[in-house]
Amino acid sequence: MYDFTYQKPASLPDAVKALGTEDAKALAGGMTFIPVLKQRLNKPSVVVDLAKLGLTGITVTGDTVTIGAMTTHETVANSAEVKRAIPGLADLAANIGDKEVRHRGTIGGSLANNDPSACYPSALLALGGTVKTDRRTISADDYFQGMFTTALEPDEVITEVSFPIPQKAAYAKFRNPASRYAMVGVFVAKGPKGVRVAITGAGQNGVFRHAGLEAALAANWSADACKGVSTPADGLNSDIHASAEYRAHLIGVMAGRAVTAAG
Ligand SMILES: Cc1cc2nc3c(=O)[nH]c(=O)nc-3n(C[C@H](O)[C@H](O)[C@H](O)COP(=O)(O)OP(=O)(O)OC[C@H]3O[C@@H](n4cnc5c(N)ncnc54)[C@H](O)[C@@H]3O)c2cc1C
């Protein structure tokens, strides 16, 4: 770890100001950021801890679930309101990493990091949610810009994330047995924005929507409909865990399981 200055501001404007310093970085649960610092892969001059900003909590109105950026995966997984409104989202959170990771990791940290194998990006994209920051609201369709890349400015802080409540939605993940990140994860949703299907863990550029599965499920919302949709392996990840062809196959299998879970 390189030396850095640690700050823990008590207000959002102070945090944004601190992040405006050259090379400053935000700290949420630290589940990704601390290992990155330890491995000397990042060298921020200032680390700005977001813990005192009060960005926690879950609100459910008639048609929207809103979750504060610093809300942990464990809190989302156990929220009776989320379980009632979008059970697939609570289930996704309940299957992130292990208990330790779920107690520290936050929804804002996950979406800011945009790991290509992370679970939450697929929920945000499939549900057509929005990311609210200290300065604007960004739709899911504009937010994801590639692997570990988002529309966020370097000094921009996610404050909350909103999801329209769908008629049906669920997530199915073929997890890496060691890390539990998605080798392939598929989030399916049928809601106010139509049928949307988002794939994580498979794409070289991170999370993406699957037009073939969306068309098939819009015509016939059933696990069987997924069987007729093939996914080309071109452009999919191939690594020590799985080949691109295996991931292409898993997309169809996980999509079918997600539709079954959604009902
Ligand atoms: C062993 C292990 C297993 C895991 N398994 C899974 C899994 O199965 N599925 C999954 O989806 N994830 C998994 N994760 C990731 C984990 O769940 C966290 O979501 C992730 O590490 C980031 O969240 P964090 O709160 O820890 O953010 P941090 O590590 O603190 O920050 C990550 C990045 O986001 C930035 N950031 C954080 N909060 C904000 C904000 N509010 N506004 C702007 N920028 C911000 C930071 O500057 C940093 O660049 C795993 C992690 C570990 C260590």
Compact summary:
By secondary structure, the chain is of the alpha+beta class. It has twelve helices and twelve strands. The model has no long low-confidence stretch (mean pLDDT 97).
Secondary-structure element pattern, one letter each: EHEHEEEHHHHHHEEHEEEEEHHH
Overall CATH architecture of the domain at 168-262: 2-Layer Sandwich
What general outline do the C-alpha atoms trace? globular
List cofactors, ions and other ligands.
flavin-adenine dinucleotide
| Average pLDDT for all residues | 97
Number of DSSP-assigned strands: 12
**CATH homologous superfamily identity of the domain at 168-262:** CO dehydrogenase flavoprotein, C-terminal domain
Question: What top-tier CATH class of the domain at 168-262 fits best?
Answer: Alpha Beta
Q: Strand content of the residues, in percent? A: 15-25%
Which stretches of 5+ consecutive residues score pLDDT under 50? none
Strand order of the largest sheet: 4-5-8-6-7
Helicity, in percent? Answer: 25-40%
- Biggest beta sheet summary: 5 strands, antiparallel
Our count of helices gives 12
